[in-house]
Amino acid sequence: MLSILLRSGLIFASFLMVSSSTLLGVTSEEAKAIVASPVVISATKYPSQLDQTGDTVRVITSDELSALGVGSLQEALSLVANVHISSSYGVSSIFNRGTHSGSTPIQLNGVSLFDPLSTNGAPFFLNIHLQAVERIEFVSGSKSTLHGSGATGGMINIITPETATDDGVVMELGQGQFNVQGNYPLQVGNHRLLVNGYLERNHSGSAVPQYNGVDFDEIDQINAQTFSVYWRNPDLFTGQMNGYYQFNFMDQDLDKTSYDDPNYTSQIQQHLTRFDYSKPLSGQQFLNINYSRNALHRHYENLKDNADEDTELNDYHGLSHHLDMTHLSQLNHQQTLLLGLDIAQDQGRQSTDYSGDKSEISDQQQSATSLYTQFRFLNPVLSTQLGARFTNYHDQKTVQTASASFFRKVPLIGATATLSFRTGYRNPTLYERFDPTYGNDSLKAESSESQELSLQKSFRYAAVKLTHFNHLLDSKITGTAENNYKNTNINGLSRSVGQELSIQVPRVGWLQFLRLDMSQVDSKEAGKNALKVPEHKVTLSTGLQYQRALLGISMHHVGSQFASASSSLPSYSFANLNLSYTLSQKHSMGLKIENITNEFFQMATNNFSPGRTALISYSLAL
Fold first, then answer.
1. What are phi and psi of 326, to 5 degrees?
2. Is the pLDDT of residue 492 over 80?
3. Residue 57 pLDDT more than 50?
4. Which residues, in sequence order, are bridge partners of residue 408?
5. What is the DSSP annotation of 283-298?
6. Local structure of 65: helix, strand or coil
7. What CA–CA distance (Å, rounded) separates 418 from 407?
8. Within its chain, how far is the Cα of 136 from the centroid?
């Protein structure tokens, strides 16, 4: 499969390089454009040109999201070839480069979506809707030295604009669903405010009447609301202060099997808060203080009915506080030093009632304190990016991590080669430590090692990047039959080895963007095939604009994956189309069609696509 990926990518790259300016409809000056290196924050915790870092970062821009009509985080992440999203029973999980679902933390405007009561530290993001996004930064490879616990496989940073010049409303209507969102900017003196709101009514999950000759009566109703406020004062206490608050609510009907279970529901409430203060100090030195809070309440209720013989109630209350202070020194135009202090505290409680058989996690809390640093030296001979972190967690346990990246342009071929070595860690969650049945308070942190080699070259019409990675996870926290599934650190190594190929075409003429991503991974856990990890994945997305019309197309192929030790899910392919048309300066309309090439496919065990759906949108700028 790898040879096929490489051959396909090289053929496609060659086509892009020899394409004439007439074919693309651009002038000779525009034909000289190359893919510009975007400015990212996640790789270094301060704005940096991507080609001046030692990281692999996939940036999903607002233009790409808008052209493709992407409205949810799951849909956005499906554009990334080395990521697979699995959704079932009201929970969505990320599998990045073959690592487990707790290896890739997500931040929304600097607030971690970490759930302290999750089984393996996985973020809870099912209720996150992309109302207005500036960009999504997806960092592949361990970033524990900068972002702490859990970032052993990478991290995701969702950045939304904190200011806006226009207010507006967008309404979407489709088969079994209705969405409306709006934003309103406001300025009072030096205080700038932006208010966003989102409302969703969706029961398109009932659109699957039959699959492979089997009748379905599956209903998956969703009622969701989101309200957020951004606040900024650029001149407060001789520095800049930013504030952010978001409330998410979602009520969803769930189905444990392939038939409707009308009395199985979930209700999610979440409060996200952040305050950020930044101040320039003497010379080229900068101070930043960031406090964030995530309060998450999940309630699941499955009442006794024809589908279930028993009543099951589950209630989870999780609360995370995070204080991060950094000092950035620009030593000279080549050298930058970052020093940081990171304090995290998790609190939570859980109750379970299975037909009168009750269990609970009483109010528990845990904390971790970290000191970390990152040094970057840009040099035409050899650039380096070095990092280290020391963490004290849970009853005076300690863990150390380090990272080293080396990158330079290779003579003759003009490509940039990057070689990285990184270690990472993940602390046990409250659930893993204190669950009355499976908990183990003596757990230690998971540890990881990874190596990555990449080669990137920019041509006239495209940038091509080829990456090879090797990821090892030790002391994985899991339960086995030998210890009655009680959480234990398993010393057997979990390993993921793979290759990635990406080709990106810049905005030229009527072509707004074009992105081809391919990934192949071989993932093993203690010598056995890892579950829910496709053996390969290919994504192609493009946006084409002609006068007032904008067409976005995304195509996906997901390889086969193991659903259990003895069963697998077949590969599947699908495509989405989004067409928008600007009626006037203030009015526009759109049409989105999902699953236009493959109406039904199984994304997870007994969880099928909702069929071919169409969504009509109307946008009004006030």
1. -130, 150
2. no
3. yes
4. 417
5. SSEEEEEEEEEEEEEE
6. helix
7. 4
8. 8
Contacts for 519 with CB less than 8 Å, ≥ 6 apart: 81, 82, 97, 498, 499, 500, 501, 536, 537, 538
Query: By C-alpha distance, which of 80, 90, 88 is closest to 154?
Result: 80
What's the pLDDT at 219? 58
* Separation CA 500–CA 97 (nearest Å): 10
Q: Are 427 and 441 in contact (CB under 8 A)?
A: no
Amino acid at the residue 321: H
Partners of 173 in beta bridges: 178, 616
Q: What is the mean pLDDT of residues 210-221?
A: 54
Q: Per the structure block, which two tokens stand in for 408?
A: 């330079």
Q: In this predicted model, which residue has the larger pLDDT, 38 or 452?
A: 452
Q: Please give the structure tokens belonging to residue 562.
A: 């193991």
Claim: this prediction has a pTM higher than 0.85: yes
Q: Taking a C-beta distance cutoff of 8 angstroms, is the pair 497, 470 a contact?
A: yes
Contact (Cβ atoms closer than 8 angstroms) between residue 209 and residue 247: no
| Residue 309, both tokens | 């013989």
Residue labelled with tokens 């030096």: 190
Q: Is the dihedral of CA 85, 297, 115, 308 positive or negative?
A: negative
Residue with tokens 């999940």: 298
State which H helix or E strand residue 300 sits in: strand 285-302
Share of the chain above pLDDT 70, in %: 86
Instruction: Compute the distance between CA of residue 50 and CA of residue 455 in angstroms, rounded to an integer.
Output: 14
